[in-house]
TrEMBL record:
Keywords: NAD, Oxidoreductase. It comes from Rossellomorea marisflavi. Coiled coil: none annotated. The keyword tRNA-binding does not apply. SUPFAM superfamilies: 6-phosphogluconate dehydrogenase C-terminal domain-like, NAD(P)-binding Rossmann-fold domains. Residues 19-254 form the Mannitol dehydrogenase N-terminal domain. The lineage of its organism: Bacteria, Bacillati, Bacillota, Bacilli, Bacillales. It catalyses: D-mannitol 1-phosphate + NAD(+) = beta-D-fructose 6-phosphate + NADH + H(+). This is Tagaturonate reductase. The keyword Oxidoreductase applies. Residues 281-479 form the Mannitol dehydrogenase C-terminal domain. One of its GO terms (biological process) is mannitol catabolic process.
Length: 499
């Protein structure tokens, strides 16, 4: 039996007024926003449903949603507060769907509704970009900012400029200041189309574009496990979306929006305001440890984040790294400790195979953005934490090439090759430098100084940090001669070293 309204399930919320127009119907929004709206509806604090909008002309999800009466199953698997979670629920917060490329009049009617309060989106980072395009009113613009400009203008015209009919715009795309950036592009598009000054006045003062930060790993449909889930659920669902229990939604919204969209009243992990602080926490204490553990863990024989966290020496290394990163973040200790505790639960998720080779792509950029600021904070204090230094040394060894292809450098672990991804500057420098080391033309220390001084990679001369080159070179020698296990064991428990 296929999932539909005919399948007995929990209470349906599809009869509730459509308060949310959602641009995007992919796994993330269904496993994040739509799940949250269901949680609020279950507790009677939102009492609204969602209209899902196909974001691209060739989308495949909306027809599947329609075939299942806009129902799907959310599965949350992982750890929460130290306990294993394995839970599923039929989500009924989506009440309908629109393909704007074939049903543009329906999109216009949707924004005419007095019930509509929120437009939410996840069109990927590539979706919030300016695109010059024509609009005649009869067909959907291609870009998301174009659609939004046209829809807001239609609402403004429909209500004859009524100021109280503005909307809250809630982008979930993972870019900094996503609300501000989206608003600026909508402005540009509206200028291209010659909209009136009165519209711009209404756009700026009656609509709120919220900066946000979203955080939940949603892996999507469990391919290869269809029969297992069919037996467990008792029905077939083509749109099962699997995610972790952890979730975070940081929103820069005003007091009225908190009343309209009361996530906090449903016990959800929402932070009203402080988006930049939450971003710093996420980059520092989730993304940073990922980058810290990847080259070290992979060269020590681990393949996944879970492998790292269940190997005693590697886990000790990561835990020391957490402390070193926390010490360099300017936030309250309890905030950092609480966030770290949640991240450890996520790293220990037994259902999530998060492969180190996937995390390891473009690691020079990731080290520069995620760990280098922490290293420099410590360096100003006259110390170089061994965890951050070993991670840097391991990074250089992780990219030690055996050959190069059009895609990038090919390296080796235990006789088995693996692919890396980096820009051409990094690839060329590492290829030439490692070849010079192996031919005996330069020492490891000289090679490290050459790499650290490359401002095209780091944005500055890292060789200027006193003692850094010497410590990186020493770690590299240990890795090459004694192995990564020995290098890790030398660092674990050593803490930060004064330079």
């Amino acid at each position: 039996m296929k999932l539909s309204k005919e399948v007995p399930n929990s209470t349906s919320y599809q009869h509730l007024p459509a308060k949310v127009l959602q641009i995007g119907e992919g796994n993330f929004l269904r496993g994040f926003i739509d799940w949250m709206i269901q949680e609020m509806n279950k507790q009677g604090v939102f009492n609204g449903s969602v209209i899902a909008v196909q974001p691209t002309p060739h989308g495949k999800v909306l027809p599947k949603l329609a075939a299942q009466d806009y129902l799907y199953t959310a599965v949350l698997r992982g750890r929460k507060n130290g306990e294993t979670v394995d839970y599923y629920e039929v989500i009924s917060s989506i009440s309908g769907g629109i393909n704007p490329y074939s049903e543009w009049p329906a999109m216009k009617r949707a924004v005419e509704s007095a019930d509509l309060q929120i437009i939410v989106s996840n069109t990927t980072e590539a979706g919030i970009v300016y695109q010059e395009e024509a609009y005649d009113g009869d067909a959907s613009p291609l870009s998301y900012p174009g659609k939004l400009a046209a829809l807001l203008h239609h609402r403004f015209t429909y209500y004859e400029g009524a100021g109280d009919k503005g909307l809250y715009i809630l982008p979930c795309e993972l870019i900094e200041e996503n609300g501000k950036k989206l608003k600026s592009i909508v402005h540009k598009v509206a200028e291209d189309w010659g909209y009136s000054e009165a519209f711009f006045e209404w756009l700026d003062h009656s609509n709120v574009f919220c900066d946000t930060l979203v955080d939940r790993i949603v892996t999507g449909f469990p391919r290869g496990q269809e029969s297992e889930y069919r037996e467990r659920l008792g029905y077939e669902d083509e749109l099962i979306t699997v995610g972790e229990p952890y979730h975070l939604f940081a929103i820069e919204g005003d007091e009225r929006f908190k009343e309209i969209f009361p996530l906090h009243e449903a016990g959800l992990n929402v932070k009203w305001g402080g988006v930049q602080e939450q971003r710093d926490l996420k980059v520092g204490l989730l993304n940073g440890p990922h980058t810290l553990m990847t080259p070290v863990g992979y060269l020590a024989g681990a393949d996944t984040v879970l492998d790292v966290m269940t190997t005693p020496s590697l886990r000790s290394f990561v835990e020391q790294g957490f402390l070193d990163i926390q010490d360099a973040l300017p936030m309250e200790e309890e905030v950092k400790k609480e966030f770290t505790s949640g991240v450890v639960d996520r790293f220990l998720n037994p259902y999530n195979k998060h492969f180190l080779l996937d995390i390891g792509m473009n690691s020079f950029f990731k080290y520069t953005s995620r760990l280098l600021p922490r290293l420099k904070t410590h360096a100003v204090r006259g110390e170089l934490p061994e965890t951050l230094v070993l991670a840097l040394a391991a990074l250089l060894v992780y990219y030690k090439p055996v050959r190069i292809t059009e895609k990038g450098l090919i390296a080796e672990r235990g006789g088995e090759e693996y692919e890396t991804r980096e820009n051409s500057v990094v690839n060329t420098l590492l290829l030439d430098t490692w070849q010079a080391i192996e031919e005996g033309r330069i020492t490891i220390l000289s090679a490290v100084r050459s790499i650290l001084s490359c401002e095209d990679i780091w944005g500055e001369d890292l060789d200027a940090l006193e003692g850094l080159a010497e410590q990186v070179a020493a770690h590299i020698e240990t890795i090459l001669i004694e192995g990564m296990d020995a290098a890790v064991k030398k660092v674990v428990g050593s803490g930060s070293v004064k330079s």
